[in-house]
Design brief:
Blueprint: E1 3-5, E2 8-13, H1 15-21, E3 30-31, H2 42-45, H3 50-61, H4 67-78, E4 90-93, E5 96-100, H5 110-127, E6 134-139, H6 143-152, E7 158-165, H7 171-178, E8 185-191, H8 194-208, E9 216-218, H9 224-227, H10 232-243, E10 253-258, H11 263-273, E11 278-285, H12 290-297, E12 299-301, H13 322-329, H14 334-347, E13 349-351, H15 354-363, E14 364-368, H16 371-385, H17 391-400, E15 409-413, H18 421-427, H19 436-447, H20 453-456, E16 467-470, H21 474-484
Parallel strand pairs: 5-15, 6-7, 6-9, 7-8, 8-16, 10-11, 10-15, 11-14
Antiparallel strand pairs: 1-2, 1-3, 4-5, 12-13
Helix pairs in contact: 1-5, 3-4, 3-10, 4-5, 5-6, 8-21, 16-17, 16-18, 18-19
This protein binds pyridoxal-5'-phosphate.
């Protein structure tokens, strides 16, 4: 199977090449042109444990690897790294199900993909016979950064650089990143927001293109190797519903996904393309509701105010992976996708054709909520069900309330409440200690839940990364470091 650029069908790559490059040479994203080509008996997947299930799905999406190879990579990626061997447990909360994606090494859903990506990348490097070290560039709105650092630190043949918005992440998230150890890691704050960081990283790729001095790749969800592992938990949740006797084989399920860059929810759509019976995907946004507007009207318009919300990992105005959806929903019309992306770059907006919008709306619904509704959802679910949600999960929960009667509803939970203790405590009517680290103890005492191990020792950990750069100097900073290869 050849992956192809969303913007030019003649730019193709094998799976390993697509993973190594991260982004296609024309700025497009690598995509599977035809899911019909993939042979996968999805029903037989449902009987497997999570790690073998992951290996099978990943092998189907990346057929340059044998099943044996993929099994070994999945073992290495996941075995013993998560709180539970099932990786992503499903909790029953009232008449909903919460798919807990945050039981990994950094308490964020991104661990699911970023535990696997380094394995895929080193294996791809071997397959492609590449000798030069790879430099991973990552823009983060908070969670990706730490999860990527955790996945890639001290991985041979790879170096990693992470950029985060200086005032756009929580104190805990910041501490997680700036205390990262490892001989191959670099972390810098930028004076700007997440979109500035992401744009800087994209511009760095563009500037390095075709220059043999650089071998850059991405750990953001523009990398297909990052997206593919996320397909697994949609099957896993379905298998759990079956096992608990909540559904019959073939019943359709609705997934509510707290969305930013559209990677998580798109992986769900991949699962559907592989056979999983899904009724609807509900795209939940916070006050930065560019996706809600798009899914309702077909107009994607990033020219709007940017809000800093209590769910910062979803504070995004340019959702990269939407480009892949446009490709799928236009029957792989790369010329159309290229022209829409050109509009986005030049005018700050694009409008999709009516027919395409209808196709998208048949699969995706959307809603949003503000910080106050987010807080209310946290308080309500705690009071009524004794279940503690983080702010991102709460956005999805609040949006799911508009879909009463559409059960079974699976709400994806993307972070531990301990990653956002201030907002969660305030939502519960408490006055949080000013020091966010103290507030971890406060939240633990109040909820009776233990602080995840990876967060407990953070306060006393040594700060190792202090660089702060202007958003316009990101490209030079990254290129210089990547060229010198001194870390
Ligand atoms: C990244 C992230 C999201 C958004 O996921 P996308 O794949 O970017 O849509 C939601 N919640 C949390 C906690 C995240 O870290």
């Amino acid at each position: 199977m050849r992956y192809q650029s969303t913007r030019n069908k003649n730019l193709t790559a094998s799976g390993p090449e697509a993973i190594l490059r991260g982004i296609a040479p024309d700025g497009g994203l690598y995509m599977i042109p035809d899911f019909g080509e993939i042979k996968l008996d999805w029903k037989s997947l449902l009987e497997l444990d999570t790690i073998p299930m992951a290996a099978k799905i990943l092998q189907a999406l990346l057929p340059d690897f044998t099943l044996e190879e993929m099994q070994e990579l999945a073992q290495k990626a996941y075995c013993g790294k998560f709180e539970t061997d099932e990786l992503t447990p499903l909790a029953e909360v009232g008449d909903r199900y919460v798919l807990e994606l945050f039981r990994g090494p950094t308490s964020a859903f991104k661990d699911v993909a970023l535990s696997m990506l380094p394995q895929l990348m080193t294996a791809s490097r071997k397959k492609a016979g590449q000798e030069q070290d790879i430099v991973i560039l990552t823009a983060t709105s908070g969670d990706t950064g730490k999860a990527a650092l955790e996945g890639f630190h001290d991985v041979e043949g790879i170096k990693i650089m992470v950029f985060y918005p200086n005032n756009g992440v929580s104190a805990v998230q910041k501490a997680q990143m700036v205390t990262q150890q490892g001989s191959n890691v670099k972390v810098a704050a930028i004076n700007g927001n997440f979109d500035d960081a992401q744009t800087g990283v994209k511009n760095t790729f563009a500037a390095a293109l075709g220059d043999p001095a650089y071998c850059l790749s991405s750990a953001n969800s523009i990398n297909i190797g990052r997206l593919a592992p996320q397909v697994v938990y949609y099957f896993k949740a379905y298998a759990d519903l079956l096992k608990k006797g909540k559904i019959q084989l073939g019943d359709e399920v609705t997934y509510v996904v707290p969305t930013g860059n559209f990677g998580d929810i798109l992986a769900g759509y991949f699962a559907k393309k592989l056979g999983l019976p899904v009724k609807k995907f509900i795209c939940a946004s916070n006050q930065n509701k560019v996706l809600t507007d798009f899914l309702h009207e077909g107009l994607y318009d990033r020219k709007r105010p940017f809000y800093k919300t209590t769910s910062p990992s979803m504070d995004i105005l340019v959702s990269s992976n939407l480009e892949r959806l446009l490709f799928m929903m236009s029957d792989c019309d790369s010329e159309l996708v290229a022209s829409l992306m050109k509009d986005l770059n030049e005018k700050g907006s694009y409008q999709v054709p009516e027919e395409m919008l209808k196709k998208i709306q048949a699969e995706f619904a959307a809603g949003f909520c503000d910080d106050e509704q987010t807080a209310q959802a946290i308080a309500k679910v705690w009071k009524e069900h004794g279940y503690l949600m983080d702010t991102h999960t709460a956005v999805a929960w609040a949006v799911s309330e508009d879909y009463e009667g559409e059960e079974p509803l699976v709400v994806l939970s993307t972070a531990s409440p301990f990653k956002f203790p201030h907002a969660v405590l305030s939502a519960l009517g408490e006055t949080p200690c000013e020091d966010e680290f103290e507030s971890l103890n406060q939240l633990s005492a109040l909820s009776g839940l233990p602080i995840p191990k990876n967060l407990a020792g953070l306060k006393s950990a040594k700060v190792l990364h202090t660089d702060v750069i202007e958003k316009d100097s990101l490209v030079n900073y990254a290129l210089e470091l990547a060229k010198k290869q001194i870390w």
